[in-house]
Write a structure and sequence with these properties.
The chain has 368 residues and is an alpha/beta fold. The chain has 2 domains: 9-114, ATPase, nucleotide binding domain (Nucleotidyltransferase, domain 5, 2-Layer Sandwich); 129-346, Nucleotidyltransferase, domain 5 (2-Layer Sandwich). Helices cover 37% and strands 23% of the residues. It has helices at residues 44-61, 99-107, 116-127, 129-140, 198-209, 219-226, 234-258, 273-284, 309-317, 349-367; strands at 9-15, 19-26, 29-30, 35-38, 66-72, 77-78, 83-84, 111-114, 148-154, 158-164, 167-168, 262-266, 287-289, 295-297, 302-305, 320-324, 331-335, 339-344. The strands form 5 sheets. Strands 1, 2, 3, 4, 5 and 8 form a 6-stranded mixed β-sheet that branches. A 6-stranded mixed β-sheet has the order 11-10-9-12-18-15, sandwiched between helices. Strands 6-7 form a two-stranded antiparallel ribbon. A hairpin with a 3-residue loop joins strand 9 and strand 10 (158-164). Helix 4 crosses helix 9 and helix 7 (234-258) packs across helix 8.
C-alpha cells in the first residue's frame, strides 16, 4: 500500500468545534472542493444532520465510488467501534453516541474514526515529516534512517500521536498517546496541557502584565507583541512563550525517553517557534543530578533542532565509523552517535490529519 499512488477514494472530515470541513482524498490528493458546514456542537440532531449532509455532498461530488469514510474526532471514544464519549467541546455527543455505526448505516461504507493527534502523527510519519527527514539525510551524505515518529499538536490543547515503524500506536483503550495528561513541569496539580496550550500562553501573559485573564488575546497577538509588531507588554509576551517552551521541552524529554524517535510539531502555535524553541531545547538539554551533586545528561542521546540548517548537517552525518571484525577480513560501517531531532510540520496540522485519515483507512481496508 502506497498512499501516493493508491487510487482508492476516501471521504474525510476535519472536525472542529466550530466548523466541519469535508473532503475526499485519492492518491494523497484532495479531489473535491472542501464542503464547510457549522459544527452545531451543542445540538445532537443538528450536528449529526450536518455530518451526514457534508459526507453526502462530498460523496456526490467525487468521480468514482468511495471506499470508506475516515476522519478525526475528539475523544474520549471507543474509536474501534466508533462510539464517541462525553466531550467538553461537543456537548451534543454526551452520553456515548455510536457515530461510526450511524454513518456506516447511512452510507454503506466502512467508517474509521480516530483522534486528531493520532492522525496528525500518522500523516507526518508516512507522507510528511519523517520521509522528508530521511530523504534529506541521504541527500546530505548520511546513512541513518528513522522509523519512529512522535507527532505533537499545539493549539487550543496539547495532543499527540505515536507511529512505530509505520504502525500507529492506538492502545488497548484507544488512549495510545494522551500526552495532555502527562506531568506539568510547573505545577504537579495540573496536567501538562495547562502549560502547553493557548490558555497557558494567555494566562502567563496576563499574569506578568498584571491584567485580568483575557481569552480574546490569542497566541498570535502575544507573538506580535513579543516581536514589537503591535503594542502590549513585550516582557510578558516573551515570558509567556518562554514558559510554554520550557513546559513543552519537559514533556518532550519524557516522551522521547520512552519513544526513541523523531518529533514533529504542528498547530497554530508553531508559528511562534522562534519565541519558544530556545527554552524548549534548553530544558531538553539540561542536566540531571545525582544526589551527591554530580551531573548527568538528561537523555541518552543528542537532540537536534531540525529547523536550524547549521545543525542539520551534523544531525544528518552523525559519527560514521568502520570497525574490523576480529578474525574476519571484513569491516562494519555504523553510525555511533545516538540522536534524534525536533522540527515543525511543513504540511500543516490540518493537511497532515487528512493524509493520516486517508492512509489509516487504506491500511484498515487492506487488513480486513
Amino acid at each position: 500500500m502506497n498512499p501516493n499512488t493508491d487510487n482508492r477514494i476516501i471521504l474525510t472530515l476535519d472536525a472542529g468545534g466550530t466548523n466541519f470541513v469535508f473532503s475526499a482524498i485519492q492518491s494523497n490528493i484532495a479531489i473535491v472542493e472542501p464542503i464547510r458546514l457549522p459544527a452545531e456542537a451543542h445540538n445532537l440532531d443538528l450536528c449529526l444532520g450536518n455530518i451526514i449532509s457534508g459526507f453526502k455532498q462530498v460523496n456526490e461530488a467525487v468521480r468514482g465510488k468511495a471506499c470508506a469514510i475516515s476522519f478525526a474526532f475528539p475523544g474520549p471514544a471507543d474509536y474501534e467501534k466508533g462510539i464517541i464519549g462525553n466531550l467538553p467541546n461537543f456537548e451534543a455527543f454526551n452520553g456515548n453516541i455510536p457515530l461510526g455505526p450511524i454513518l456506516e448505516h447511512k452510507f454503506g461504507l466502512p467508517v474509521f474514526i480516530n483522534n486528531d493527534g493520532n492522525l496528525f502523527a500518522y500523516g507526518e510519519a508516512l507522507s510528511g515529516f519523517l520521509p522528508d527527514v530521511n530523504r534529506r539525510i541521504i541527500d546530505a551524505g548520511g546513512i541513518k534512517q528513522y522509523k519512529n515518529l512522535i507527532g505533537l499538536t499545539l493549539g487550543t490543547g496539547f495532543g499527540g500521536g505515536i507511529v512505530l515503524n509505520k504502525t500507529l500506536v492506538i492502545g488497548d483503550s484507544g488512549c495510545g498517546a494522551e500526552v495532555h495528561n502527562s506531568l506539568n513541569k510547573f505545577n504537579s496539580d495540573w496536567n501538562a496541557e495547562e502549560s502547553i496550550s493557548t490558555r497557558s500562553i494567555q494566562r502567563v501573559y496576563c499574569e506578568i502584565a498584571k491584567i485580568p485573564f483575557n481569552n480574546s488575546i490569542m497566541p498570535k497577538d502575544i507573538s506580535d507583541i513579543a516581536g514589537s509588531i503591535i503594542e502590549g507588554n513585550k516582557e510578558a509576551a516573551i515570558e509567556a512563550f518562554r514558559q510554554f517552551g520550557e513546559a513543552l521541552g519537559s514533556s518532550i524529554a519524557n516522551i522521547i525517553t520512552l519513544i526513541d524517535g523523531i518529533v514533529v510539531l504542528g498547530g497554530g502555535i508553531t508559528s511562534a517557534w522562534d519565541y519558544f524553541s530556545p527554552a524548549l531545547f534548553k530544558e531538553i538539554n539540561r542536566n540531571y543530578f545525582h544526589f551527591t551533586g554530580s551531573a548527568n545528561d538528561r537523555l541518552s542521546f543528542k537532540v537536534f533542532d531540525l529547523e536550524e540548517s547549521s545543525q542539520f548537517k551534523t544531525f544528518a552525518m552523525g559519527e560514521v565509523q568502520k570497525i574490523s571484525i576480529p578474525g574476519i577480513d571484513k569491516e562494519i560501517e555504523f553510525d555511533s552517535m545516538p540522536r534524534t531531532g525536533i522540527g515543525v510540520s511543513k504540511l500543516g496540522a490540518s493537511h497532515a490529519i487528512a493524509l493520516g485519515a486517508y492512509t489509516f483507512a487504506l491500511q484498515q481496508l487492506d487488513n480486513k
